[in-house]
Design a protein that fits this description.
single chain; about 110 residues; about 65% helix
Length: about 110
């Protein structure tokens, strides 16, 4: 049951996490996924990540550029826009306030 909850939590915040990852610089999907996994979030599969990236691009929060590779397939590189940075700041503040509220309730419930 814990894995099911964790997946639901991740879906609710994945857009924000992808934006935060792109503050480190432009990147392509697989590397974004690796960065999130390294942060302890587990493997984010392409079927989950790429719809998020497409949604962020459609909203103007990221821009994408396809680049042909010297070897192997080409890749779409994603870069945060100024609107994306603003959204990250705003939504990040809201997430932290929500997190604080959740922690407060859990603390009252004796969860450490």
């Amino acid at each position: 049951m814990a894995a099911d909850r964790r997946a639901s939590w991740l879906k609710g915040v994945l857009d924000l996490l992808v934006l935060a990852t792109l503050t480190e610089g432009e990147n392509y999907g697989y590397e974004i996924s690796k960065s999130l996994a390294t942060s302890g979030l587990g493997q984010i599969k392409g079927g989950t990540l790429y719809p998020v990236l497409n949604r962020l691009e459609e909203a103007g929060l990221v821009v994408a550029e396809f680049r042909v590779a010297d070897r192997g397939p080409g890749r779409r590189y994603y870069r945060l826009t100024e609107e994306g940075r603003d959204t990250l700041a705003e939504q990040g503040r809201l997430w932290r306030a929500f997190d604080e509220s959740v922690r407060s309730v859990l603390d009252r419930g004796g969860v450490t």
